[in-house]
Target: Pyridoxal phosphate homeostasis protein
Amino acid sequence: MYDVANNLHKVLGTLPDGVKLVAISKFHPNEYIEAAYQEGQRLFGESQVQELSHKVDTLPKDIEWHFIGHLQTNKVKYIAPYISMIEAVDSLKLLKEIDKQAAKHNRIINVLLELHIAEEESKYGFSPDACRELLANGEWKELKNVHISGLMMMASNVDDREQIKREMTLAADLFDELKEKYFADDSAFKERSWGMSHDYDIAVECRSTMVRVGTTIFGPRVY
Ligand SMILES: *Cc1c(COP(=O)(O)O)cnc(C)c1O
Model:
């Protein structure tokens, strides 16, 4: 097995105070998650409902799970009882469904709005203007069982570090704008989730509060 413990500590060692590590364990078996758990890691991210459900059933109950993938509205009900954060909310429809399912379990589910800033293929996420419109529209304020805790994005998958920096800075600036306009009194609107294995060092420079690192900790995924 990949030296998970060693890799985990290396990543943690580079993160300043105030930046959380979401260990992205998708497509890796329980042994890998247990190895990180042994070292004290409690926050993990998964992108498939079925895979996550299996892991939740078979792994320690004090693990905090983030859902990081594209989530179909008809699958929200399966994760609503336990999910700690849904990171990639990309429509008002999904936001409403999360609210509805969270209410059934008497919970408030934390979510991030996913931005689409990268120049590439991803179909998902709000453009900065669509994100502004969603908040200006105000319907989200009626949703009492969902809490918008911040923004999430993936930068373009390129070698050009300046481009990555530009995209992450744009996201950080939008965060400030929205914070001031809609969440000035809400101290829980505070998360900026960006940075993956190849760019989390840049993300930290660009005011990320939450990096999502998989490959660097667990090795390449086998699909
Ligand atoms: C898979 C994934 C990651 C982790 O990517 P690595 O390159 O393995 O670190 C981070 N964020 C999202 C949204 C992902 O789907």
Q: What stands out?
A: Strands lie at 20-24, 43-46, 64-67, 85-89, 109-115, 146-153, 191-193, 210-213. The longest helix spans residues 161-182.
